[in-house]
Queue: 2 jobs
Job 1
Amino acid sequence: MAGTGTGAAVAAGVELRGPGWFCIVLGGGLFGFGLALSGMVRPEVVLDFLMLRDLGLLLVLGAAALTAMLAFRLAPRLLRRPLLGGWFHAHPAQLDRRSLLGAALFGIGWGMSGVCPAPAIAGLGAGDWRLLWSVAGMFLGAWIQGRWFARAR
């Protein structure tokens, strides 16, 4: 994010100021609370789900997919523009070798550690310091990808 003035930043082409930052913090806090409430911040719960021993996280997955579907389908029909500015637009997906390799690496890391990025960070917020190793590995992987494998778009 590049600064555009005092206390402002640009994210996805939208300049964020006080209300934008408040919405980001509120949304992130609500998301983290939901992850903690569902048990997704506990690697043993996620590993039990991935090993098909406890399918309770399917409710979390279903609720997340339904919420996202409703937001992406209904918001552009009900609002002229996003509440925080900018415009509604689609991001075309690319299914190529790099995407498939990235998805496979993500899945392997998730299966080995029992956490994906958001629950790991939320777990740190809940006091599970064992997750610090997973979060450090995610940041290292993101840095390596950005440093050596990013392509200009």
Note: Residues 8-149 form one domain.
Job 2
Amino acid sequence: MGRIGLLGYNMGLLTTGGFIGEFRHSLDDKGRLTMPSAWRSKGEDAENYFLALPSVEGGSSAYVRVLSPKRIAQLEETISQIKTSDLEGNRMVVELMSMAHQFSCDKQGRINLNEKLVQHAQIKKGVVLVGIMSTFHIYSEEFRDAAVAEGPSDPTTRAAVFQRFGL
């Protein structure tokens, strides 16, 4: 993929501002949370469409991964390549999608998650949203605080990973 595609110039990512940074919010009485205004679509309604999936990690490392329209299209293409004869692959897709939740922001920028995802991430009231360009993660505040308290990653490991990504 070329640099233009990676940065999203022609894919709407910069129209929405991308998902960058960390934001703390609380679930309201109806189980909704407010998406940061910088992350909300400023363009077409097609950009106000998201897919929330459970993380592979469980327990205190669990979170909800939210995909942008660009990433949804990539996932759809990947899933369409699974052969009917791949029973394990199909079973895992069914398991994943049975917990998935599609949504868009309302006019106030609020979103909601289904109960399966809230339970998976063990979200009670406080949530932390962490932007990762074309996706973002939703963590329970308690789990995110515990991870941050562990301190930053080892600088040597961080440098090696950043180098892998050309940073």
Note: The chain is about 35% helix and 25% strand.
